[in-house]
Amino acid sequence: MLFLKQQDYKKILEHCEKGLPNEACGLIGGRKEGENQYVEKVYLLTNVDESREHFSMDPKEQFAAVKDMRTNGYEPLGNFHSHPESPSRPSEEDKRLAYDSKANYLILSLMEEGNPILKAFRIDEEKNVTIEPIEIFDELPNK
């Protein structure tokens, strides 16, 4: 189960809406406790492709985010991106580019105005997709 603070969900949503009509992207860092993962920080990155159909994270921003995670004792938990015109599910390209079977791949669909849908997925080495349950809370449980 992936736990996300309401304020971080809003941060992701605003970043993705601001990026329209293109896809927006970023990273998530936090902590793991058994099967549970807690997002402690959301990193808003630039989609250098400036495309509505795919994204590439700015390498310098990506490096800075990972460095910040290390500094704060967070683990990389995965990434997020938006689908401006399609459902919240991994595309064939998303599956092809999924490099880490332990990562969470969050996809925010903005295809239906006023009804954003955020889902989290895992993609294994054979490119099989499973849904990772996600819970949005006002505050995360204490460490």
Which descriptors would you attach to this protein?
143 residues, alpha/beta, Cytidine Deaminase, domain 2, 3 helices, globular
| Number of discrete helical segments | 3
Assign an overall shape. globular
Structural class: alpha/beta
User: What is the mean pLDDT?
Assistant: 94
Whole-angstrom Rg: 14 Å
**Strand order across the largest sheet:** 7-6-5-4-2-3-1-8
* CATH architecture label: 3-Layer(aba) Sandwich
CATH C-level: Alpha Beta
Q: How many β-strand stretches?
A: 8
Written description of the protein model:
Strands 7-6-5-4-2-3-1-8 form an eight-stranded mixed sheet. The model has no long low-confidence stretch (mean pLDDT about 95). The chain has one domain: Cytidine Deaminase, domain 2 (3-Layer(aba) Sandwich), CATH 3.40.140.10. About 25% of the residues lie in helices and about 35% in strands. A hairpin with a 7-residue loop joins strand 5 and strand 6. With about 140 residues, it is an alpha/beta fold. It is built from three helices and eight strands; from the N terminus they run βαββαβαββββ.
